[in-house]
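User: Predict the complex.
Assistant: Input components as received:
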Amino acid sequence: MAGHSYDAEKYWKANLRLIFGSLIIWALASYGFAILLRPLLAGIPIGGTDLGFWFAQQGSILTFIALIFHYAWRMNKIDEKFGVHEE
Amino acid sequence: MSQFAINILFVGGSFLLYIGIAIWAKAGSTKDFYVAGGGVHPVTNGMAIGADWMSAASFISMAGLIAAGGYANSSFLMGWTGGYVLLAMLLAPYLRKFGKFTVPEFIGDRFYSKNARLVAVLCLIVASVTYVIGQMAGAGVAFSRFLEVEATLGLIIAAIVVFVYAVLGGMKGITYTQVAQYCVLITAYTIPAVFISLQLTGNPIPPLGLFSTHVDSGMPILDKLNQVITDLGFNEYTADIDNKLNMVLFTLSLMIGTAGLPHVIIRFFTVPKVADARWSAGWALVFIALLYLTAPAVASMARLNLMTTIYPDGTAAEPIEYDSRPAWIRDWEVTGLIQFTDKNEDGRIQLYNDTPEFEPQAQARGWEGNELVVNRDILVLANPEIANLPGWVIGLIAAGGLAAALSTAAGLLLAISSAVSHDLIKGSINPAISEKGELLAARISMAVAIVVATYLGANPPGFAAQVVALAFGIAAASLFPALMMGIFSKRVNNTGAIAGMLSGLTFTLVYIFVYKGWLFIPGTANLPDTPENWVLGISPLSIGAVGAIVNFAVAFVVSNATEEPPVEIQELVESVRYPRGASQAQDH
C-alpha cells in the first residue's frame, strides 16, 4: 500500500504538470495573442487584418482542440504507465 | 411546391425522426434515464454534447452578435469553446470516475453536507430554468416565421415533441435524438455559409473565405467590409478595443460558466470509462468548432451582403428605393424584426450609424437619421434568402434552428428533472423511494419542467435578454469553483465550500442587480448600466469570473480556519483522481 500511494502521488503530479502546461498555452492563445498581446502582433498581416484577429476568431479554437486531444492522448498513456487505467 | 409546404416537410420530417428514435431508445431503469445506461461511445457523446451545448443562442444569435460587434465580440467564440479545455482537464474525467448521476450529488458527497447539495440544486435550477426560457422563445421565433403559426401554438407543438422523447427516453432518448439534431443543425448552418462564401470569395470553405479576397472589389473581404461600414459611420469591424480588462473577464466568465453548466457536465457521465470522458471532450469541441469556425465567416459576409443590398452602387451613391426592396426584407418586416421609417421622405433606405460625429456628412447628403432597423437575430435565419438560395435551404434552416433549440432544451430539462427526483426527492425528502418510484418521479418532474418552460417561453419575462449573464454568472461563480476544489483540494471542507458558493453567488448577483435592477424589475437599478459607472470598467456580464475568484478565496480561508475534512472524504478525493476501479476505492 505504501509503494502504491507513492506511485499515486507521482501519477497525480504528472497530471498536474500536464494540465499546467496546457493551460499556459490555452491562456496564451486566447487572453494573450487574441486580446492583450494583439497590438504586438499587429504587424503580422493576414487576409486584410492582423494575426491577433485571426487568433480571436479562429486560432484560439483550433488551439483548444489540439490541446484537448493532446491531453487525452498523453493522459491515457500516463494512466497505463502507472497502471491506473481501466480495463 | 410552396415554401410553406417545404418548411412543413423539413420540420415535420425531423420531428418524426426524433419521435422514432425516442420509441427505439426507451429508458427502462434510472441508470438509462439519468446516464443513458453509461455505455455511450465517446464520438457519439461528443456529437450529443455538440447539440446539447449549441443552443438557439449559438445557432440563431451568435453570428448576429459578431456581425454587429466585429472583433470586440470575439469573446463569444473564445468563451464558448475555451470552456471545453477546462472541462476536459479539470472536471469531466474525475466526475465520470465518481460515477454518480448528478452534479449536486458530487457536491453533497464530497462536502459531506446535505446543505451543500441543496445549494448546488438551487444554483442548478436557477441557471437551467433561465437558460431554457431562451430556448423555448427561440423555438417560438423559428415557428412563427417559417411555419406561419402563432408562436404560442408553435411552442406547444415543440413542447409535445420534447415531452415524447425526453420523458419516455430520459438521457437515453435525449442522447440519440441529440445526435440526429446535431446532424440537422450543422447541415443547415453550413450549406448557406458555403454558398455565400463561394459567391463572395470563390472559396467554398467559409473559415478560409473569411481571410480571402472579395471577388467584386479584389480587396481582402475584411478590408472591403471595414471600408464600407466606416463610410457609413460605423466602427471598423476589425478594430482593437480599449477596455481589455473587461474583454478578458467576459471571455473568462463565459469559459468558466461553460465548464460549470450542469447540463453539459452530466453528458460526460454517459461514457463507459474515464479515458472516454477525455476523448469525448475533444470530439465535442471538434463538432462545436464546425459551427464556431463558420459563424465568424457568416457574420462578416452577411453584414457585407446586407450593406451591398442597400447600397448596390457603392456607399458614395444613393441607397435603394424602398419600393424596390428585395422580397426577404418584405417577409421579415411582417414579423417586426426589420423596421423601416422614411425619415427624410425620399423613398430610399438610408442605413447608417447616426452618431454626432457622422452628422455633418449625413446632413450634406440630406439624411435625417438611420431608417432601417435590422434585428441581429435574423441574420442566420435570413441568410439563405439574402443570398437567393433555393427553397429547400430555407426549409433546412427552419429545421436546424428548431433542432438547436430543442436539443439544448431537452438537455436542460433532464438536468432539472434529475436534480429534483434524484437530489431533492431521493436525496432529501424520501431516501427510501424504490427505483421504480424514482423513475416515475423523474418523469413527472420532467413533465412539470416542460410545462413551466413552455409557459415562460410563451410569456418571456422582461429580463429574457439578460439571462445569459445570469446563467453563466451563476455557473461560473458557484458551481465551477466548488467542483474544481472538490477534486483538486483535500483541504476544502463543508463549511468552506458552502461559504464559498454562497459568497461567490451573492457577490455576482448583487453586482448584476445593481446595474440591471433587483430581480431584473425595471426601475430598481441603483446605477445606470453604462461603462462609466462600472467598477474598473467591468460590465455586469463579465462579473462571473470575479465571483469565481471570490468563491475560491472565501472557501480556502474558511476551510483553513476550520477542521480538516474526515479521512473517508480525503479517500474519496484520492479515488476520483485515479481512473482505475470505482469499487476498489470504496473497499479500503
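The mean pLDDT of chain A is 91.
Let me know if you want any component modeled separately.
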